[in-house]
Write a structure and sequence with these properties.
Number of helices: 13
Largest sheet: 6 strands, mixed
CATH superfamily of the largest domain: von Willebrand factor, type A domain
CATH topology of the largest domain: Rossmann fold
CATH architecture of the largest domain: 3-Layer(aba) Sandwich
Radius of gyration: 22 Å
Number of strands: 9
Order of helices and strands: HEHEEEEHHEHEHHEHHHHHHE
Strand order of the largest sheet: 5-4-1-6-7-8
Helix content: 40-55%
Strand content: 5-15%
Number of domains: 2
Length: about 375
């Protein structure tokens, strides 16, 4: 091997190391959502379904040291008699994931039933079972929402909350009901033990939708965006159908949720490298040259490797253009909504509570928000 070849290999090795190091330094926001699914909480679940995408859009604006933050969300339900009493009526529905369609799918599958809401138990599970970041610069938050005593169950909420605080996990408690009643039920105490904030919401409220002149075009673009996804693998069709189903679920909640989802789909946090070839190639999860033929979509099976790469690049270019158009329309939409909100007070709903807290707490961690 000549000297030039040796130096070329060394140079490539250094580039690979630097790229890996930079990726490892990406800041992260982790949110664990703990929802009471007892009988009285149908309104809470409806708000979570409707407002998921507006919360995601708020988080997508966060960056640290000029680098966009990655987002992971986990979901727990508690207080449901369909869950075993031996498990404290607590169930982890989804582990930390960047698959936002999966979170949406699982939210829409939640049903309410029962009774006994063990806040200490669900906080303990979320703290111990989830793969929380070890980095002090990352933002780690638990949102727990419900309407019964925080003291129920055999797990002491004080111990659970202090354990979370020791691991630099903030707990925000959201009581569904009267502020003073929530304080008497120790929801405020639970939040303060883990350096979080106590808020109350009205779970019976329907999430507000302010119609704008840009909504129709953004929904059309959202549908067009789906056509740029190139599903691969044995379950390719299932994932494509899930994407479309979550579009329909959002639209079924209210039109505002569908528009907010369109915005989420145009942002960097909406990543689907587990089933979409464009994201998978970008994230270096898949080597297109080595992907077996049966895992390719039908239209790519007869292509040469060069044709495959050109096809992916074409689809990627289409996607970027559509995402840009959605973002441009959304700027006008947000300005329109801001003007309208001068006339209308903000609703005290789950999504608005989460957006308010996460921005405030992220900024304390050194995150900046690009509005």
């Amino acid at each position: 091997m000549n000297v030039k070849s040796v130096f070329s290999i060394m140079f490539l090795s250094v580039l690979l190391f630097v790229n890996t190091a930079l990726k490892s330094q990406e800041s992260k926001i982790q949110v664990a959502l703990l929802l009471d699914t007892s009988n009285s909480m149908d309104g809470l679940i409806d708000q979570a379904k409707t407002e998921l995408w507006s919360v995601v859009n708020e988080l997508s604006k966060a960056q640290q040291q000029n680098q966009a933050a990655t987002l992971e969300i986990a979901l727990y339900e508690y207080g449901n008699d369909n869950i075993e009493v031996a498990d404290g009526y607590v169930k982890r529905v989804v582990n930390f994931t960047s698959d936002l369609d999966l979170i949406s799918e699982k939210l829409f599958a939640l049903t309410t039933n029962g009774g006994y809401e063990y806040c200490g138990h669900v906080i303990q599970n979320a703290t111990k079972d989830l793969q929380w970041s070890k980095s002090d610069k990352d933002l780690k938050i638990i949102f727990i929402a419900g309407n019964e005593e925080f003291t129920q169950g055999n797990v002491d909420y004080k111990m659970s909350c202090k354990d979370a605080e020791t691991n630099n996990i903030i707990i925000n408690s959201i009581f569904c009901g009267d502020k003073e009643e929530g304080i008497r039920y120790f929801w405020k105490d639970g939040a303060e033990l883990a350096k979080g904030t106590y808020l109350t919401i009205d779970q019976s409220k329907t999430s507000a939708y302010i119609e704008t002149p840009y909504d129709d075009e953004m929904l059309r673009l959202s549908t067009e965006l789906n056509k740029t996804y190139v599903a691969y693998g044995a379950d390719a069709e299932e994932y494509s159908v899930r994407q479309e189903t979550q579009d329909l679920n959002a639209a079924g909640s209210n039109r505002g949720a569908a528009v907010s989802r369109a915005v989420s789909k145009s942002s960097h946090v909406y990543k689907n490298s587990g089933w979409d070839l464009i994201d998978a190639v970008d994230d270096k999860i898949v080597d297109i040259d080595k992907l077996e033929k049966q895992n390719l979509p039908e239209e790519m099976k007869s292509m040469t490797n060069e044709e495959k790469l050109k096809y992916i690049e074409t689809k990627k270019a289409e996607r970027i253009l559509i995402q840009k158009k959605i973002a441009e329309n959304n700027k006008k939409r947000e300005a329109y909504i801001a003007a309208k909100r001068i006339e209308n007070a903000e609703d005290d709903t789950l999504g608005n509570a989460m957006k308010l807290l996460v921005r405030e707490q992220a900024e304390k961690k050194g995150f900046l928000f690009l509005d």
